Amino acid sequence: MDLKEQPLVSIIIPCYNAEKYIFESVNSAVNQTYGNIEIIVVDDGSNDNSLNEIKKFGDKITVISIRNGGQSAAENVGLKTAQGTYVKFFDSDDILHPEAIETQVKQSELFDFNDKKIVFGYKTDIDEKGNPLSLNVPNNFPETTGSVELTYLLITGLITGTPLHKKYLLDEVGGWDPLCPIMGNDFDLIIRLWGAGVEFHYYKTHVYFYREYNSVYRSANVGWTAKDPDLLLYLYNKWERIIMNRCKFSTDEIKQILAQKHIDTGRKLANCKRNDHASIHFMFARKILEKKTLKLDNHLKINNKRSVIGSIYLFFGKHFRYTFAENSFSLLKVIRRFSKRCMFYNLQIF
Predict the structure, then answer these.
(1) Same domain, residue pair 212 and 272
(2) Least C-beta-crowded within 10 Å: which of 31, 77, 163, 262?
(3) What is the pLDDT of residue 130?
(4) What is the DSSP letter of 109?
């Protein structure tokens, strides 16, 4: 295909304090076998040498510097700037396979552009120095080519760098949710795209190398379950509302997956002494499974109690079908600040 006939692909790389890896990551984008690309690197207020490393590429890339606002905000800035028909996101410490864009454009062009279909492939893991941790296709990717079901998206999800997005579909759902923390933002985007009618189509294509290492800046190492449990409830309610609107929890398998997510989160919160929010997740699990009680560990007896904060949250969900989840999220923030002084959380409604 002649360069003029190739659809433009925007490669967007958000960067925060990735001086050790950003040059290699950007270089993997610059050296794609596909010709018609634009590379947008958004520096999210880095305070290390990342920006200097990025600027080494000169006019080969577009560099945008913003105040630190989080990965989702940086990705939205890149998306707003992007001119491409297709968009590829990937992180500042990962490496694109040289033929990733070329291969995924060919796969995407097999479908009518107006079809709400997005192709994705697989990633392999490398260590901090770039050495492969495994040469095999990870077993959490599909075995065969084809569209994947909601159950796959809920259990496994799609990692940020594996899909090649159609820009108009990203615009249709409003891009990334800036409220969503680093961990979970890719899951959030995929569920919202699915809710808009998008079908995800898997090809056994090696898309990129995912770097595994320990760092305080590594998004995969950021735990947030107990740090902001109100935000977590807002996200759970949003995702479940999307699923309800499209499929009404149509299968027992979907119900079980969603309930298990609440149970697992409730356990984590209970272990962090956040019993008030843990009880809410257990209540939601019971509601989804249509059960009066759950079989839990002995130290998680709180599942049979309804906290005041939980009752307020469920009131919004029951009476407004979560259309005002954002408002209840804000309300819960106010209640939490107030309750720290008056021990409001210790009150229980049975």
Answers:
(1) no
(2) 31
(3) 87
(4) T
